[in-house]
Design a protein that fits this description.
The complex is a heterodimer of chains A (about 70) and B (about 240).
Chain A: H1 2-18, H2 23-41, H3 49-66
Chain B: H1 3-30, H2 33-54, H3 63-92, H4 115-143, H5 146-171, H6 176-198, H7 209-239
Helix pairs in contact in B: 1-2, 1-4, 1-5, 1-6, 2-4, 3-4, 3-6, 3-7, 4-5, 6-7
Classes of the chains: A mainly alpha (about 70), B mainly alpha (about 240).
Organism (chain B): Petropleomorpha daqingensis
Protein name (chain B): Putative membrane protein
Keywords (chain B): Membrane, Transmembrane, Transmembrane helix
Chain lengths: ~70, ~240
Amino acid sequence: MIVLRWLRAFAEFWIDFVVGDDWTVAAAVLVGLLGSWGLVEAGLPAWWLLPVAALGSTAVSLRRAARR
Amino acid sequence: MNVPVLVTTFFAAAIEVIEMVAIVVAVGSTRSWRAALAGAGGGLVVLVALVAALGTALRTVPLAPIRLVVGALLLVFGLQWLRKGVLRIAAGGWAIGQGEEHVDEGDVPPDRFDWTGFVLSFKGVSLEGLEVAIIVVAVGGAAGALGSAVVGAAAAVVVLAAVGALTYRWIARIPRRALQLFVGALLSAFGTFWAGQGIGVGWPGDEVSLLGLVALYAGAGVGLLSLVRGWRRSASLESR
C-alpha cells in the first residue's frame, strides 16, 4: 500500500514536471524534436526548428490563458 | 605539472562549469537553496561514483542520449516557468516578491522538500560534470598528464563556484517574478541547446549559440508580456 502510494506520487511528480499547466507545450517540444531529427537525417540545417516550436507553442498557450 | 594541459583543461572545463553554476544559482534563487544544493551534491556524488567505476573508459560513455533526455526535460520545465512568469508579470507588474518570499505558493512546497528544484539542479550538475570528467580524461589522457588535467578542472570548479556564491547576493535582490521569467528563459535555452546536441543538431558557433538562445528566450518573454497585456485588454472589452 505504501509502495503503491509512493509510486503514484512519483508518477504524479514527473507528469507535473513534464506537462505542467498546458500539455500542448510539451507536445510541441516533442514534435519539434522529431522534426529536428528529421532535418538532421536529411542533412538540412535544423538548429532553428526547436526554438520556433518552443516559442510558438508558448505564445499560443499564453494567448489561450490570457483570453480566459 | 604540465602547464599547457592544466590551462587547456581549466578553460575547457570552465565553459561547462559556468553552465552548471548558472543552473544551480538560478534554481536556488527562485525555488529553494536547500533543494538546489542537495541536487548539486547528489549530482556530484553520482559523478564521482561514475568516474571511480569507469576511469578512462569514460570516453566511451554515449553523451548524445543523456543530452537529449536532460535537455528535453529542462526545455519543457523552462517553458512552463517562462509562461508562468509572463502571466504573473502581465497581471501584477514586475516588482513583486523580493527577498525570501516565494514566487507562488503553488510553485515551491512551503512545508515539504522541493523535489522539482532537486531534480533540476541534479540534472544540470550531473550532465555538465560528466562532460568535465570526459574533458579531463580526453585531454589528460592524450598528453599523459592526467594529474594536471584534474588540477585544471578542479580549479575551474572552485573559481566559478566562488563567482556563483558571490553573485547569489546580487541575484537575491531581483524581484522574484522577473527572476522566474529569466530563469525560465535560461533553462529553456540550456534545454534547447542540449536536446539539439543530443539529436545531432549543429549549432552555429557551437557553445556561443547558447548566449544567443538565452537572449532569444529572454527577449521573447519580454515581447510576449506586451502581447499578453493586449490580449487581456481585448478579452475584457469583448466580455463587457
